[in-house]
Design goal:
Elements (H helix, E strand, L loop, with lengths): L1 H31 L12 H34 L2 H22 L15 H25 L1 H28 L4 H12 L1 H15 L4 H25 L4 H24 L1
Helix pairs in contact: 1-4, 1-5, 1-7, 2-5, 2-8, 2-9, 3-4, 3-8, 4-5, 4-6, 4-7, 4-8, 5-6
Length: 261
């Protein structure tokens, strides 16, 4: 009997460490994506902008797929139907408030008109990345497959966002080195969010259902309010169809991820 308890205790500790390590690795990976901003000065601007706008379409699909195929179904297992969607709405509204207060918004062109708000944008981005860390932590705590799905959705979305953030900081007057450093430092708040989220959800009685629903609301807000308007401006029918196809590809990726794990 004592041997069984010892084995169970070891197994529990092993699972805890695996979860924590997964969270730390995942949030570090997301933070490192901020360094892709250097591509803005290694690739011709016209070609980079052409790539970025299609990455936006992929991000929309990944975020919507993550919200509706992964986060909301898991949240419904943790809390009631009504509360789940109340929390989704809360997440949606809170991200709108964050955007308004901190002047943080998604933009994927270097000439974003936020010159006077560069540092405020960094603050808003830090909060956004911290919340990403909390979402990754909660997802991995529920199960590894949900963690991977949330991490993938966030990572795909962060690539065009971090490139544009880097461009905005340089446009605001920072040197390339400082812009890259500041962008990376704000991205590291995801690691802080991940570790803190792990500690909170393991040692304090907080609702995972709430955070999963909240995360779904934030994913939906970013996709619907910030990203979709960018591709709606496309006038070419062929390019518009391509945007839709890439968006659907993003959703399919999230669906296949759900089915494969």
């Amino acid at each position: 009997m004592a041997q069984i308890k010892k084995i169970n205790k070891y197994s529990s500790f092993h699972n805890i460490m695996n979860t924590l390590v997964s969270i730390i690795i995942g949030t570090i990976f997301v933070s490192l994506i901020s360094l892709v901003g250097i591509l803005a000065f290694l690739i011709k601007e016209k070609f980079l902008n052409r790539i970025l706008i299609y990455l936006v379409s992929l991000s929309i699909g990944a975020l919507l797929g993550g919200a509706f195929l992964h986060l909301i179904p898991e949240a419904l297992d943790k809390t009631s139907y009504d509360l789940t969607f109340i929390y989704v709405i809360f997440g949606f509204i809170l991200f709108f408030i964050i955007e308004k207060i901190f002047h943080w918004r998604h933009c994927h062109e270097k000439n974003c008109k936020i010159h006077a708000f560069a540092y405020m944008n960094l603050l808003g981005d830090s909060i956004h990345n911290f919340i990403d860390g909390l979402i990754i932590a909660a997802s991995f705590i529920v199960n590894p497959s949900l963690g991977v799905a949330s991490l993938l959705a966030i990572a795909i979305h962060e690539i065009p966002q971090e490139i544009s953030d880097f461009g905005v900081l340089v446009y605001a007057g920072l040197t390339k080195t400082k812009a890259l450093a500041f962008n990376f430092l704000t991205a590291l708040t995801a690691v802080l969010g991940g570790v803190l989220g792990y500690l909170l959800f393991n040692y304090i009685d907080l609702s995972l259902g709430f955070l999963l629903s909240f995360a779904a609301g934030s994913f939906i807000y970013i996709a619907a309010s910030d990203l979709i308007p960018e591709i709606k401006e496309e006038k070419s029918l062929i390019k518009s169809i391509l945007h839709i196809v890439i968006m659907i590809v993003g959703i399919i990726i999230m669906y296949l991820l759900k089915e494969s794990v």
